[in-house]
Amino acid sequence: MRKSLAVLQLHRRELLKIGVAVGGGLVLDVALPAPLRAAGRVITDAPLLFAPNAFIRIDPTGAVTLVMPMVEMGQGTYTALAMILAEELEVGLDQVRLEHAPPNDALYANAILHIQTTGLSSSIRAFWTPLRKAGAVARTLLIAAAAKKWGINPGACRARQGVVTHPDGSHHLTYGELVSAAASLPVPPVDSVALKQPADFELVGKPTRRLDSQDKVNGRAQFGIDARPPGVKIAAISITPVFGGKVKSVNEAAALAVNGVHQVVRIDNAVAVVAEHMWAAKKGLMAAAVEWNEGANAALSSADIARQLETESRHPGAVARNEGDAQKALAGAARRLDAVYQLPFLAHATMEPMNCTVHVRKDGCDIWVGTQAPTLTQALVAEVTGLPKDTVKVHNHFLGGGFGRRLEVDGSVLAARIAQHVEGPVKVVWSREEDIQHDMYRPSYYDRVSAGLDAQGRPVAWTHRVAGSSVMARYVPPLFRNGLDPDAVEGAAEPPYDFPNIHVDYVRVEPPGIPTAFWRGVGPVKNIFIVETFLDELAAAAKQDPVAYRRSLLGRNPRALGVLNLAAQKSGWGQPLPERCGRGVAVQSAFGSFLAAVAEVEVPRSGVVKVKRLVCAVDCGVVINPDTIAAQVEGGSLFGLTAALYGAITLRDGRVEQSNFHDYRPMRMNETPRIETHLVNSAEAPGGFGEAPTAIVTPAVVNAIFAVTGKRIRSLPIDTSLSG
Amino acid sequence: MAFTIKVNGTAHSVDVDADTPLLWVLRDVLGMSGTKFGCGMALCGACTVHVGGAPLRSCVTPISSVGNSAVTTIEAIHNTAQGKALQQAWLDLDVVQCGYCQSGQIMSAAALLAANPKPNDADIDAAMSGNVCRCGTYQRIRAAIHRAAGG
Which residues of chain A lie closer than 8 angstroms to B102, CB-CB? Predict the structure, then answer.
């Protein structure tokens, strides 16, 4: 047992800041140093903080600060993580304020990704147990401090709503009153403290209002793009339109002649115009009339990339799964089905365009940004500026959408390279066109799938070859082993069904010059589409109902069967629908959660698909906030549906052809189906969820289109001309 | 060029080119960050403000066109009955996710309710489909507008 390092003097300046923050709900710009624990000494007359770990601070006023190790980009993690901490700490959510964690892998690394990164639907899975223990440690110490004051056994004392109560009910001590005493106690090992029994949960599992709503409805929420350090200038940027190109010429004098323009910064692949405000910067950039040396990719087109994928996917790849003898079973099957699936590049198109504010000085650097990867931002900006890492401060913000785009730090690195040439802080803001044309894209894929059925229509063989870029190999190299990208095959290698002979492999195909990245739903978002639509083809070939066929193959997977049955029941599967309307079903096991969806679509003879209703059944284990699950079903499914109906980034002459929301089209309110969420009660470990609904929706819709039209869709976006 | 505009009841003098969009005057010159930049082409609605009571996309509204009309932004919409009711409905139904588009959503919804106090679904779709939400909060936005309208 180590001596508590939790006691430290609270400097007057910091106390003032906290004083301002208390009672203000979410105050997210107060950045006390992270390693509070390592600071300080006891000065008994000074105000003290109780900070038994990196997630919890309580001050003598009783104000509870919870430090959020993962970032809030809409998925509701700040509310869920706060609920977990508050549950075990025994405080009300109205008593807490939240703070963005500073970059610090040692304190805040996500145990699944081994880095302080928010992604792959891992936050709750990674932090459920650690945060419960962190809260329980703090609660145990506060109770022990009260018991010590009362001279009694702590076992009989109870804590609730930030107050410890004497066993006979006669005495109460607030957490604020216990700060000093609790901070002087030795911190027990995390595994020695008792966690609450699920039956005693008062927050976990209850529909709970988001903690970040207030500031997001009154305009006060601060996103990266809202950072305004004193003296900040605004930069508009133009990046080489052809991937790999370089700046050839810039008309600097013309740019500088524009009212409000201060400076033109030219780096190898981009030009930034720094000005008083964005409009002056944009006009300056127009006047600069940048010309480019286009380089090796100047002739690249989408057709080249499709051809490359088609060719390279003919060769065997790294084996992700091999059970039985799929080739032999395929050869001996009563019936064989083969299909090829093609998926396009996709942009993230977060509502908040890419941006980053940087102030580079000789002695360090400040970065104001909303990022999913604060430690990576710090490390790579340190590298590019040559500054020591501990002098690079990352001030994280709310993210105006992440979807994987803000896992990447290319924007912060580029902003830092520009800021190196600018006196004072500079905010670099991507136009929507630059944002879409210089994204890092969800890879394009080319998958080959085959199945063999026996005389009764049961699958006896299943083979699936995935071909596409490996994001993992670049982003998390240790997880890319023996040529296999575990993300690219997630949802393909372990379908929930009984396949006696299955072979799944992966061929890495890197497109020339096109940067690829994770995109909401990652591997499963395309694999579930392929597996579930192809399985639907098997059901049709076997002349069986799609739900009944799936049921017959889920005997060994009760959780998958459970969600399937629930979705079928709630959707009214099998009941009659109006003419030109149909239902489609899909089931998935991914991110540690089980989902089934039934989509109801109308396909008029005009061919314009209208998705009318989506019924989702969910078993994601222990649910922290049921309302967040429903919100993620609603939002995640629309994100997937947008891509299914409209999403494609295409290339011509080495350039991305799309540029803004008119040609990279998002779904809008008038296209939104009614979306229902039905939860299965479960005591299983919490599963990941932010991305799961994005994956399930497309196969359900595509299978429903088949139900209406008899036509199979094997490439996305959905070609509505095929639907009539 | 000097312009004087009235934003949320306060007059501000700014010195910018006549074609400068109101969005950048609000955000970069006046430092009011509640109004958001999304597309720059009136395609997403994130920058919606009221000018003389009408919902306008501030990213394509030149400062020279504002004249003496009162500009209202998300920072002051709670002073209107519709704005206040909408913000409360947004909280009651937990509409927001990332939150970036919600200033514009609320501004568009406030203009709708001012013109049509009891909109039906079709009215809401017609008024709101110019506002993009990549988090997909549309279902709750529609419900929150009904709630704010007392329906």
Answer: 216-217
Chain B residue with CA closest to A217: the answer is: B87
Examine the domain organization and report whether A562 and A702 are in the same domain. Answer: yes
Domain co-membership, A120 together with A156:
yes
Q: Which residues of A touch B104 (CB under 8 A)?
A: none
Q: What is the CATH number of the domain that holds A458?
A: 3.30.365.10
Q: Hunting for tokens 């959020």 — which residue is that? A: A68
Q: What ipTM, to 2 d.p.?
A: 0.98
A37, two tokens? 């624990």
B38, B73, B108: which is the final residue of a domain? Answer: B73
Instruction: Measure the N-to-C terminal CA separation of chain A; round to a whole number of Å.
Output: 71
Q: What is the DSSP letter of B27?
A: I
Q: In this structure, what token pair is assigned to residue A141?
A: 């110490």
Burial of A444 (0-12, 13-18, 19+ CB in 10 A): buried
Residues B132, A668: Cα–Cα separation, whole Å: 6
- Of B24, B94, B135, nearest to A213 by CB-CB distance is B94
Nearest CA among A45, A51, A90, A46 for reference residue A185:
A51
**Boundary of a domain, candidates A217, A248, A278:** A217
Q: What's the pLDDT tens digit per position in B79-113?
A: 999 999 999 999 999 999 999 999 999 999 999 99
Instruction: Give residue B15's domain range.
Output: 2-73
Same domain, B84 and B60: no
Q: Does A562 touch chain B (CB under 8 A)?
A: no
Instruction: Please give the tally of structural domains in chain A.
Output: 3
Residue A2 has pLDDT above 70, yes or no: no
Asked if residue B124 and residue B80 are part of one domain, the reply reads yes
- How many domains is chain B partitioned into structurally? 2
Q: Is B20 on the interface with A (CB under 8 A)?
A: yes
